[in-house]
Each structure stands twice: as C-alpha cells, then as structure tokens.
Amino acid sequence: MRAMRTRIAILASRGGSNLGAILAHLDALGAERHADVALVLSDREQAGALERARARAIAAAVIDPLDAAGLSARLEQAGVTLVVLAGYLKLIPAVVVRAFHGRMMNVHPALLPAFGGPGMYGQRIHRAVIDQGVRLTGVTVHFVDEQYDRGPIIAQWPVPVHEADTPDSLAARVLSVEHRILPRAVEAVAAGRISLGADGRVHGTLCPDDDDRAVILAPSPTTHT
Ligand code: GRF
Questions:
Q1: Best of 178, 180, 181, 186 to mutate for ligand 1, by most ligand atoms within 8 A of CB?
Q2: Quick check: is 208 in a domain?
Q3: Nearest to 40 by CA among 21, 70, 16, 6
Q4: Which DSSP symbol is given to 90?
Q5: In a domain? residue 214
Q6: Which domain holds residue 22?
Q7: Stretch 51-73: mean pLDDT, rounded?
Q8: Single pTM value for the model
Q9: Is 134 exposed, middle or buried (0-12, 13-18, 19+ CB in 10 A)?
C-alpha cells in the first residue's frame, strides 16, 4: 500500500514560475512522487500563481499576511503538512513558523547568509551582487525560522556572475536555477530524504556527498533525482 503523499501548500506573491516548476517536477515523477500541491496562497489578488493553481483545479486563495489564525486554519483544512514559500514577499507570523518547524521551506535567489535579510529581495539582491563585484552567486533553499532569510540550509546551487550581467540578466539565470533546485528539494523533504534534526542541523543532501563535482559542474540537477 503506497504511503500517503505529503500535501503541500505553496505561498507566492508574484508570477508563480517556481510553483510551475514544482508542478512540472511532480508531474514528471508521476506515481513515484511523494508530494502533491494541495493549496496555493498569495497576499496579492493579482498574483499569477493563483491563476496557475486555478488552471490546475488546485485550491487557491488570497490571504491577509498578518492573519495568523486564518493562515493556520487554511493549512489545517487542506491537510497541509509542508509549506513552501516560493517567491513570497511577506513575513510569516511567528506562531505559524513555530507550528511548522522543520516543515516550512523558502527559496532565496542568493547564497545565504550573503545577500539576505530584511530588504534583500528581488532585483535589489542582484543589483547588490553586481555592485559588490562577487563572481559567484546562486540559490539557497532553507527551512524557515523566525529571522528573515535565516534558518537551516537545505540546498544551494552556484550561479556564475558574468561581466556583462545586469540585474535582469542575472535574475533570469538565477531563477532558472531556482526552477531546478527547489522542486528537487521539496520532493526530498516530502520523501524524508532531507530533514531538520532535533540538533537543529539538516540531515540528508540533494547531491551525493562523495562527488563535489556534482554540485559545481553538473549541467543541471536532472543528473540527480
Ligand atoms: C523571483 O525573483 C525569485 O527569485 C523569487 O521570487 C520571485 C518570483 O518568483 N524566489 P516566481 O516566478 O513567482 O516563482
């Protein structure tokens, strides 16, 4: 008898391309997937993520980011046990973060702890990366805790900064990597291959520990399930 699949809620403020990537990855895994997107929530009525959900007949709703009880009730009613912040720009009420300790994930378009924290979102990140002349940026997926963009790191993937990069060109290259690493991190957490230990450290990894090249040189994470 197949184990019950993890029911996931996705919170997104904008277009929802990360939601689309998660849905595509779970579709590709088919019967082998360990998760289903059961609910999509946004703080913005116009968010494209809500349209993407409705197109797939997935429950979708606008929430008041400050209404902790309302958010908790929606998550409980949908039987959600894993929350994924995929381009969600508001803080999650601390009581909800605590209730989902080790079961709430966020994707950040930089290599945290660098270029993270309050005010560091969207193009501001990529502008700062270019202005500071760093040669490598990337994507971080981490468990959410009560400090913005902090929390135990689940996975990171490098993105080189090109000399001719603008914030837009760099944002696009980073976003394409988000689309490859976030779905795999979500599936790995849903399947229990990656988890947050009682010691506060993350156990499990997306890439084989014994092959560092897998992190730096792989053309795409599709070489790793
Ligand atoms: C992107 O800037 C991405 O880097 C961040 O949220 C923004 C929108 O993502 N995670 P999406 O297209 O709504 O998934």
A1: 178
A2: no
A3: 16
A4: S
A5: no
A6: 6-203
A7: 98
A8: 0.92
A9: middle
- Dihedral angle sign, alpha carbons of residues 74, 76, 80, 84: positive
Least confident of 57-61, 77-81, 147-151, 200-204: 147-151
Q: Residue 88's domain is classified under what CATH number?
A: 3.40.50.170
- What is the C-alpha to C-alpha distance for residues 58 and 40, in angstroms, rounded to an integer? 7
Residue 210 lies in a domain: no
Q: Are 138 and 107 in contact (CB under 8 A)?
A: no
Residue appearing with tokens 């230990």: 197
Residue 182 lies in a domain: yes
pLDDT digits (tens, 9 = 90+) for 185-199: 999 999 999 999 999
Start-to-end C-alpha separation, the chain: 23
Kindly list the protein residues whose Cβ atom lies closer than 6 A to any atom of ligand 1: 12, 14-18, 49, 86-87, 107, 109, 122, 175, 178
Encoded amino acid at 161, one letter: V
Q: Which of 25, 108, 142, 179 is catalytic?
A: 108
